[in-house]
Amino acid sequence: MVDGGGDASTPLPSNGALCSELGLASRVIEGLLVAQDPPVWRGGVLPDGTFDLREFTVFGGAAVQGGPVNVAARAVIRIQGSTWQERYEFSGPNAPASRRASGRIAASGNQLSVIEDCPRQGFERSWQYSYVEPTLVIYDAESKQAFTFAKQ
User: Fold this and answer.
1) The domain defined by 29-151 carries CATH number 2.130.10.10
2) What's the pTM?
């Protein structure tokens, strides 16, 4: 997921621990540009659980021609109470290679925020989201990318 231009790969914290011990989902998801505006994101109550990436969509608006974006992704998220862990990997031109992160999560309305503990302590990322059992969609308004996850 877009993180405001961060590292291509996540370094080990100074204590040598990984930011996230999550394994990657085995399914590689090809990104798709769609010729429409994003829907209204509804928020929802986020349950504890592990979520695997199932769709990667870029909303281009009605004026674009839809099709592949030449970027593929694998990602997994774990939510436990107010704790967030993620691991993702992108492949394609100019795509960051991989990232692991952990932090604290907060949801209000349709806004989802993570304040990282690792690798960039205190760094905050925010997205819009919708959760309807078992599907979590996280949308980055800046990049117009939506990541659809299914609860394991």
Assistant:
1) no
2) 0.85
